[in-house]
UniProtKB/TrEMBL annotation:
<dbReference type="GO" id="GO:0000155">
    <property type="term" value="F:phosphorelay sensor kinase activity"/>
</dbReference>
<dbReference type="Pfam" id="PF00582">
    <property type="entry name" value="Usp"/>
</dbReference>
<protein>
    <recommendedName>
        <fullName>histidine kinase</fullName>
        <ecNumber>2.7.13.3</ecNumber>
    </recommendedName>
</protein>
<dbReference type="Pfam" id="PF02518">
    <property type="entry name" value="HATPase_c"/>
</dbReference>
<keyword id="KW-0418">Kinase</keyword>
<dbReference type="InterPro" id="IPR004358">
    <property type="entry name" value="Sig_transdc_His_kin-like_C"/>
</dbReference>
<dbReference type="InterPro" id="IPR038318">
    <property type="entry name" value="KdpD_sf"/>
</dbReference>
<keyword id="KW-0547">Nucleotide-binding</keyword>
<dbReference type="GO" id="GO:0005737">
    <property type="term" value="C:cytoplasm"/>
</dbReference>
<keyword id="KW-0812">Transmembrane</keyword>
<dbReference type="InterPro" id="IPR005467">
    <property type="entry name" value="His_kinase_dom"/>
</dbReference>
<dbReference type="Pfam" id="PF13493">
    <property type="entry name" value="DUF4118"/>
</dbReference>
<dbReference type="InterPro" id="IPR052023">
    <property type="entry name" value="Histidine_kinase_KdpD"/>
</dbReference>
<keyword id="KW-0808">Transferase</keyword>
<dbReference type="InterPro" id="IPR003661">
    <property type="entry name" value="HisK_dim/P_dom"/>
</dbReference>
<keyword id="KW-0597">Phosphoprotein</keyword>
<dbReference type="InterPro" id="IPR036890">
    <property type="entry name" value="HATPase_C_sf"/>
</dbReference>
Amino acid sequence: MPRGELRIYLGAAPGVGKTYAMLEEAQRRAARGTDVVIGFVETHGRPHTAAMLGDLEQVPRRAMTYRGAEFTEMDVDAVLARRPEIAVVDELAHTNVPGSRHDKRWQDVQELLDAGIDVLSTVNVQHLESVNDVVAQITGTTQRETVPDEIVRAAEQVELVDMTPEALRRRMAHGNIYRPDKIDAALGNYFRVGNLTALRELALLWLADKVDEQLEVYRSQQGIAATWEARERVVVALTGGPEGETLIRRAARVAARSKGADLLAVHVARSDGLAGADPAQLARQRVLVESLGGTYHQVLGTDVPAALLDFAQGVNATQLVLGASRRGRLAQIFARGVGVTTTALSGSIDVHLVSHRQAGKGRRAAAVPAALSRRRRLLGFGLAVLGMPLLTLLLKALPDLTLTNDILLFLAGVVGVALVGGVWPALLAALGGSLLLNWFFTPPYRTLTIAEGDNLLALAVFVAVALAVSWIVDVAARRTREAARAAADAQTLAAVAGGVLRGERPLPALLDQLRETFGLRAVSVLELAEEAGGRPERAREEHAWCVVASVGEQPACTPDGGETAVPVDDRITVVLSGRRLEAADRRIVEAFAAQAAVALRQERLAEEAATARPLAAADRMRTALLAAVSHDLRTPLASAKAAVTSLRSHDIEFDEADREELLETAEESLDRLARLVGNLLDMSRLQAGVLGISATAIGLEDAVPLALDELGPAAATVGTDIPADLPAATADPGLLERVLVNVIANALRYSPPDQPPTVTASAHAGQVELRIIDRGPGIPEDQWEHVFLPFQRLGDRDNQTGVGLGLALSRGLAEAMGGSITPETTPGGGLTMVLRLPAAAQTSPEEPQE
């Protein structure tokens, strides 16, 4: 059975019209005769969306009970039994009620797709798993309902339902999205213009990546190799030379000219695995590329121009940045450089040849290490000096051999010398063997004269073959040694990278791995101290350096205090103590030193961020406190002052009822001020960690009535349902009363007059749960955490609701007593605050009392 197709309507925020557009498509397909049913659609009370349901068949929902409340979810079995061609399933990221077949609705959709049913669905960009942390940063709200990106990316069609932030806010203000009592809070929080603009950009960028993937799949399926300039992609080729930073910055400027252009850096490594470029230079250049917003790539290839163009065409690049050739003029006469060859073969890709300081200066020849050890070379020379005469004596004892046989045996001797000692002993053996062959075995004998031309040709071929074999043996030995060295370097880099990834602190992990790898006593990272003014010329002064990180015993405190110093830049140096390193090892250490500098910068940025966070939070709280106090103290003060002034006035005569009313107004205003000041003081004590707590066993059947009495006549309508056998809770009686007063007062404020709040209690798993249930407007789940922030009042704009400290203080006090406060949606509408406290330990009557 073919799998069904998934079509998703993606939006930047609630209210952009995803469900409406999805239902429009469902109506269009139904009008064409397609069998379409509604599996689950949530209209959120929006009349235009509800009207779009029209006469579409709706599969009855499945009723479920959870914690004594009734909920409805999509009935997957009913949809499968109905087997429509298309099922409409809203809110792909929705979390199902516990007890459902699947935890998430997208899993229900997967089952429908597996059954061959096409599905239309919706999702907002904030529910995509990959951007969840970004959305939390933008909006300050963490989305708990998410859907894996691969589910959405696997959809056959993803359609963006877009709307400008201004138009969306107008829809909100007109009441087309939320109920009127939620509009002000939504516009002032989640639906701010900046938030909506950022979310819109996220949605557009995510969809652009999805479209890019589809384009690549199409090009691959159709075998299209030509570049399609759908988006500017600038590729910069790096050789590992000193000109790399110039090329990277030039390529970044080219990319910056086009909005949304990609920057990619690529290095072509030798396919034989041998070391070519400087790893330290490449490490620094990789850091530079990533700091400019680009990506670094490495490919293998023997033909550099072909490898570069293959990579550029593979990523659909539009421009390629190369450095002007470093080869000298004479070398360029005999062979075209990489830049010229790449330009000739580039086709539709624009190639930029960038000049730099190293252009035309020629490549500095790298020091070629000896292919064989000194012992083997000496042994080879010994064989050449002694072996050739001994072979001559042996051949003289065998008079029946021809000159051809003599040459072949001498050639075998030269090859043996080459295998043992390399090219120079073999060269000596070849020259000595040719002279011995000419003197003893070529007519006329015992002279260096050669009578026959054939003999001369044979001797010449012997010398040429001997030299060629010697050179090949020497090159093979050198390549073997270089390959072994490259493998060791790769293993070292992999070990260090693994140590960094596994370590909780990257810099110490990197230094410790470096110390163990090279068998060092200590490794330290030094920085030019502030007292030295950060100037390298003062590096020789006493106390000019400070140790910012070190591992091992007796780390060096100055660059001269260790055996090897590797400068990273003008201020930072890595010093190795214990033994001196070989030149080849130093190249690897330089790469590690560059990574150590990056790790140091990351640690410092993390420390700065950690320091700035509490300062920013404190600044926000001070700003909010000043704004709230200046606004909310004014009304009760004005009311109390007006009442007292009226009572003291001699111009108006008040009867007893008026006097009582004025005194009651003054008393209520002062009580409100007292509660406000008490909340502020308790919040400051909580944040300072000096709030005194005296926990004891207390029954909720005693605590709740005390809190209701504190709230006065307004709490007379609050219903309570506290079981008589409910175990006692462990709490501070005074703080518990404050918590209950604040939470119940909040429920009273938002409850309709004909549906007062209800307080119920139960015990579960060693905890006592108290539920304060209201039937008010409720709060969207994505804004639950906002109500617990100080000075937040979702939807409130009046002067009598306080400074928004009640729930924030209540959560702080509950957590200080070892409990918690969490919100839940009241079935049927409203908000339920769940206060959990540890149950008091109960002693069995049979146990002795001490």
